[in-house]
Amino acid sequence: MARVKRGVTSHAKHKKTLDAAKGFYGRRKNTIRAAKAAVDRSMQYATRDRKAKKRVFRALWIQRLNGAVREFGITYSRFIDGLTKAGVIIDRKVLSELAISQPEAFKALVEKAKSALPQSA
Fold first, then answer.
1. Distances (CA, A) of 52 to 41, 46, 58, 84
2. In which family does this protein belong, per the annotation (predicted)?
3. Would you say the pTM of this structure is higher than 0.85?
4. pLDDT on residue 119
């Protein structure tokens, strides 16, 4: 039986790792041992941060909405409560975009939310 030479496979694996480490600093970009550890860690960060990105954007939309509705004399939480009571189902991303690009439409939504809230508060 002929012996198996594994150089091609190992080289291909190493090349794949080093290509993923392109742009890293120092030995992390060209030494397989350091590059493998750096690439593995970077993949962990990428996985974690794909989840975190969603939270960050939701927080941004909420901050934008809070700033936009305060111009109409209402807080974010009261605005969302009013929209819920009025039966308006629009997510925060779309509401934030409306507040920026179509202020007239957003003002109509704020008025609708205000009218759905009890006047005593």
1. 16, 10, 10, 27
2. Belongs to the bacterial ribosomal protein bL20 family.
3. no
4. 80
**Quick one: pLDDT at residue 52?**
97
- Please tell me the predicted confidence (pLDDT) of residue 86: 94
Q: Tokens in use for 8?
A: 């091609």
CB-count burial class (<10 Å; 0-12, 13-18, 19+) for 37: middle
In a domain, 121, yes or no: no
First to last CA, the chain: 88
Would residue 1 count as lying in a domain?
no
Residue 99 domain boundaries? 7-116
Q: Cα(66)–Cα(63) distance, rounded to whole angstroms?
A: 5
Measured CA distances, 43 to 39, 49, 50, 119 (Å): 6, 10, 11, 52
